[in-house]
Amino acid sequence: MPGSTYKIIELVGTSEKSWDDAAKNAVEAAGGSLHDLRVAEITKLDMTVENGKVKRFRARVNVSFRLEE
Prior knowledge:
Blueprint: E1 6-15, H1 19-31, E2 37-50, E3 53-66
Antiparallel strand pairs: 1-3, 2-3
C-alpha cells in the first residue's frame, strides 16, 4: 500500500475572546471547505491593540490535510 501525501497551509484565526477561540475558529473555518484535516499546529500567537486595550486575539495555525489520490 503506497503512502499518503499531505498539504500544509497557514491560517490566521481571530477572536475577541481568547487565543484558544482564535485557533479553533481558524480550524473550523478550514473544515468547512477542506476535507480530511489531520493536524493543526499553532505557530504564533499575537493580538491587536487599540487605545491601549486588547482588541482581538490572533492565532497563526498550520493545518495539514490529505491530498486525494
